């Protein structure tokens, strides 16, 4: 019954505590009111019984006066019986002035409750009533009446039943009122506890405490929501900061491309995937020819323009799943994964070379032709580890650079010979 009985180590819930308080308060109030009203009713009943015995004695005096005058015991007894039978009287007697008993009448104990009725009469009702019978101002007899507890017992039984009914009704009423009050108090607190639990255990900061009808609980919920707003804003700020820091840690500041750290992680991942799923991929190494000369003669700003243009043109020649990274300086690396045919890598190289055939527009408006040297390493044909592939791609790139220089030198020599012949 609302937490009245519980294990010793179990804590009461707020609902149980409120319910028990309401129930105990209601029962105590009903019991106190019942006891007070019963006491007042008994006092009134006592006064009523005393007054009623006096009226009965007066009626006996009027009725049996002739029998007393003529000392007619039978007539006096009949008069007593006729009047007291229907009254709450246990015993009635008429005594002569000499103390001689003229007539008497006693109620028979016809029910099992008769003894209890007499006991209650002696305990609660006033004592016997003695009233003189006067004739011409002279006392000719004395009437002695003893009250009976029949009506008193009936009153007490009715009172107990009424109190029991009141207790039941008050208990039901207390339960109903307690339930209503508990819902109005505990429902907002339960919502607050659920939101706090979700935030604490699951880190769900988007939850909010609903509005409450009670002003104090509503203010508490709104303050808690304000705190959640601040926490959510702080968390979003932290995520943005972390994302920005992660991007800065894994991307090149100049070109916006992934840097060496991210490239090495993706290369290791590609090697693992290729080994597990028997997939081919290609690693391309490239750098810009004569980049140091461009920096030394035209300045670092021109070199930056060349690197940005190179990064943009390379990106435009790749598939969405491919990756291009700036390793540092003028060195770039490309991962083509997956690769179904070797010709796909060669096609990418060709497209990049064609894209670099167009001059690069520098910041001052001037134009510059920039060429690149590209080396290719295929997995698993030319290496089974990341280190092997990097070495092979780097070696192939420098071979391509050397061949380009030799070709350029050969072309220059042929040009010089032709000029001399002319």
UniProtKB/TrEMBL annotation:
Q: GO molecular function: any one?
A: diguanylate cyclase activity
One of its GO biological process terms is: signal transduction
Q: Which Gene3D superfamilies match?
A: 3.30.70.270, 6.10.340.10
For this protein, the Enzyme Commission number is 2.7.7.65
Q: Which residues form the HAMP domain?
A: 183-236
Q: Which GO terms describe its cellular component?
A: membrane
Residue stretches spanning the membrane: 21-45, 151-178
Cofactor(s) needed: Mg(2+)
Database matches in InterPro entries: CHASE8, DGC-Regulatory_Protein, GGDEF_dom, HAMP_dom, Nucleotide_cyclase, Rev_trsase/Diguanyl_cyclase
Q: Does the keyword Heme apply?
A: no
Origin superkingdom: Bacteria
Name all GGDEF domain ranges: 279-412
| Entry keywords, A to Z | Membrane, Nucleotidyltransferase, Transferase, Transmembrane, Transmembrane helix
Name this protein carries in UniProt: Diguanylate cyclase
Instruction: Give the classification, highest ranks.
Output: Bacteria, Pseudomonadati, Pseudomonadota, Gammaproteobacteria, Aeromonadales
